[in-house]
Specification:
about 350 residues, mainly beta, Methylamine Dehydrogenase, Chain H, four-stranded antiparallel beta sheet, 32 strands
Length: about 350
Amino acid sequence: MSSTISPPNFPGLVDSRGAERRFDAHITGCCASRDNSLLAFSTGEGDVILAPRAELKTPDAWVVSQVHDGPALAIAPDVSGDAFLTGGEDCRLKRTSSTRTVEEVARSKRWIEHVTTFSQGKTALIAFASGKEAQLWAGGGSEPLRTFEHASTVSGLAFDGKGKRLAASHYNGLSLWFVQSKDSKPRLLEWKGSHLGVAIHPAGEAVVTAMQENELHGWRLSDGHNMRMSGYPSKIGSMAFTRNGKWLATSGADCVVMWPFFGGGPIGKPPMETPGIPGVNCTRVATHPTQDIVAAGFADGAVLMVDYTSHRVLPVCAAAGGPVSALAFSSDGCVLGYGTEDGRIGALDLTAPD
């Protein structure tokens, strides 16, 4: 795909607004705490690395805790405060706080590969997937509220924007569960093939999955109409809706591919392509929560921020080894974190002066 820029052999924003640190482990995930006071990174060695917002430029102050016996496979902010939830190959769901306190929340018979949380008003929910099961927990609960069974392994989880529905992707489609319903049956949206991840439109208008083939599949939720989005040179490993739901940003090409979800799109509409890096695949995307900005991580370790209305590019960090495997903004948009397969992590305070 087109719309590329020269390879970024330049200093980036991390040099003036943050710092990097290297670890001997694959970085498997990144997110900010619910109160935005911490960035956290999970690793293939089972560690959780905490970077306090006040010390983003002081990497020696970042705290490393051994949390899982084996790789940490998923990370999400807890429903409140400065804690995080992680799932691992040890079949445990763990909670890690800013004080380095680690506690076991739940255990399963299989790896816990997906964790997601929702918190708004009085509603606080945790969901995690283990094999063919997805469990729903109250934020402070000691046992599951519901267990959702599927015919095949759950490959992705996402709450809708109001916390009323939980989408679980799996082989041949996805299941959409109403979390407060007493009905044990989901709304099943079917499409043959392997579905590897899921995203829900912020207003609940559509749901999209990434396929084993180099394409996306979506459903319009008002009537179940199918939407196919193809043309990628590689698999889509990361996707995120923009703040107002107008665009779906995705990896899978040498730029960020953005599908329109307005004016009848994406049906019959071509995607927009942001500037990228020629011949270098985009591996991770993250959308800014308050501005028209998308962050993109690439297979050479570079990270860019792109204003997708003007196509202005801000380099975050230069190419430096392994592919970007984790990328996230804080919910207030003031902090950005990234991690790579070869153990490099970076953290930026985007409110700091140049």
